[in-house]
Amino acid sequence: MPSRPPSLIKPKPRKAWAHSKPSPRLRGRAGVADRRSILSDEPLCRTCVKAGRVTAATVVDHIVPLSEGGSDDRSNKQPLCTPCHDAKSKAERAAAQTRGVGRKSRA
């Protein structure tokens, strides 16, 4: 028996968080060059500078995480030292858990 023509096949429902287009995130050599450029333009940790400390930045962080709708533009990136990045990431994970983002159902 023949299958249905493609025009009559119902599309599978998408997950609420699934994007129809791939993220325009810089990857590979372009991403490495972008991070290198940001760290050379702003070599100190932005959080430490605000606190009056002088610490070399080692990580480029998204101010608004990509998972929360942040962009991969330069305006959404900041240089941080590893301890500040770890603290920010830990706080973001804790906030996501209280909102229920990323929890798996136990059904």
UniProtKB/TrEMBL annotation:
Keyword Hydrolase: yes
Comp. bias intervals (Basic residues): 11-28
Keyword annotations of the record: Endonuclease, Hydrolase, Nuclease
Domain of life: Bacteria
Domain named HNH nuclease: residues: 33-86
Annotated InterPro entries: HNH (IPR002711), HNH_nuc (IPR003615)
Pfam families: HNH
Gene Ontology MF annotations: endonuclease activity
Record bears the keyword Cell membrane: no
This protein's name: HNH endonuclease
UniProt organism field: Sphingomonas hominis
Lineage of the species this protein comes from: Bacteria, Pseudomonadati, Pseudomonadota, Alphaproteobacteria, Sphingomonadales
